Amino acid sequence: MIRVVLADDQALLRSAFRVLVDSDPGMTVTGEASDGAEALEVIRRAGADVVLMDIRMPGMDGLAATRAIGADPALDEVRVVILTTFESDDYVVEALRAGASGFLGKGAEPADLLHAIRLAAAGEALLSPTATRGLIARFLAQGGGGDGEGQDASALDVLTAREREVLVEVAGGLSNDEIAERLTVSPLTVKTHINRLLTKLSARDRAQLVVTAYETGLVRPRSS
């Protein structure tokens, strides 16, 4: 059973999400919160595998709450999915750095929301060439989400040539199966490479691998 916490300052949206999540026999909503501080309280009290987190809330916002989750070893298994409108949120790269597993538009189809929760609970990242990847590229081109911090390309010196290839494909939003087909290897081999990338680059998940690929210049933001 996947435990889900809903964090959004709009009660109507939380109610709609609750009905949807509870309609799935493999999921249950363990709590709701209207701001980040309340979300942290609910997570620690009731438990959560996945948090659907609005990025903009009064008091402690979703970004600060995501940082707090990522910094707490007791919450290491909690995965955060940011609820956002792709064109308007300025904090996406910072949220990925803080440990968010990906992004989902508030206008997503119900089936897509449930799929996103399952992916996050399984440790996967919600990255697609048409959504998160383009969003990351745009904000990195504007200075990396506002704090001006990046990573030196030398951070990739620990990688083998094949690991670099896999990192490029991960940054392109490809799944393990798609990467395996493109590089003519088995999905198990790709999984092994990704696990090594996570260890060598001290990344929490695939989402942070994408940020690293852009910040180090391995992958360049599109100009358009």
From TrEMBL:
Tell me where in this chain the PTM 4-aspartylphosphate is found.
54
**SMART domains in the record, alphabetically?**
HTH_LUXR, REC
Top-level division of the source organism's lineage: Bacteria
One Pfam match, given by its short name, reads: Response_reg
Among InterPro entries, the record links this protein to: CheY-like_superfamily (IPR011006), NreC/VraR/RcsB-like_REC (IPR058245), Sig_transdc_resp-reg_C-effctor (IPR016032), Sig_transdc_resp-reg_receiver (IPR001789), Tscrpt_reg_LuxR_C (IPR000792), WalR-like (IPR039420)
Q: Where is the Response regulatory domain?
A: 3-121
PROSITE patterns per UniProt: HTH_LUXR_1, HTH_LUXR_2, RESPONSE_REGULATORY
Which keywords accompany this UniProt record? DNA-binding, Phosphoprotein, Transcription, Transcription regulation
In the UniProt record, the signal sequence range is none
Residue ranges of domain HTH luxR-type in the record: 152-217
Name the record gives this protein? Response regulator transcription factor
Starting at the broadest rank, the lineage of the source organism is:
Bacteria, Bacillati, Actinomycetota, Actinomycetes, Kitasatosporales
